[in-house]
Amino acid sequence: MTKPQEPFPKVPPFYIPPAKPPRKKIIDIRGMLSIITMLVSLAALTLSMLGATRFILDIFDDGLAGSLDGLLVKLIVLGFAFFFGWVFGLVSIRVFGNLVYPIVIQMYAWGCLVAVSLLYIKVIQKLFLQNYDALHFWAYLFMLLGGLFVLICLHLMVEDHELRSFAIPLLVISVLQLFVIIARYVFVANPNGWMLFGDFAILGVMVSISALMLAHIGILSPLRNLIDDLFTTSTNSNHGGE
Description:
There is one protein chain. The chain is mainly alpha-helical and 242 residues long. Helix content is 73%, strand content 0%. The chain is elongated and about 100 Å long. The relative contact order is 0.09.
């Protein structure tokens, strides 16, 4: 008997695989979501900062003469807009890995520092003129604290970001305020001694916060670690569901 002929092995050139269907164009959903969340965050942060600028200018133009309820409503709206943009920014950076938005946020942080510095100089001018009441003094103090709070929030959005370089301009302005205090209460006639407490309060708060920023002793580390853990868990969950 003749031995049956073995089939040719399924390797080229004896075997021609069937043509594969053309691959469909895969849409990068993750990249799209990264861009969308960045744009949403950028719009909300920009609007909230522009609104805060208008709010501060109104206060310097005696905007506290109106009802406190109206001021509270404005603060709530601006705070919600900023928090909305801040959360979407964290999602864009930490969850979807946006590499462009951290650069934009650093630019916004420097812009915020410039705004806080100008606000600080304006407050020093108001303190020197001594034509303010207790309500305006507390408004000046909380505006400065609010500006620093926004700066810290922007700092927390970017990984491995330091605040030490941001403290130097504030310390320089604090030294300027000290010179202004000496000039006001030593060389200018008839100063109001009771307002010295306001000058020292503003100076003490700004120097303390600037010194903590410059010392870099890790006060914000627990909050940063909390944000990192939260978004790391969220990212791992998203990858696990893919």
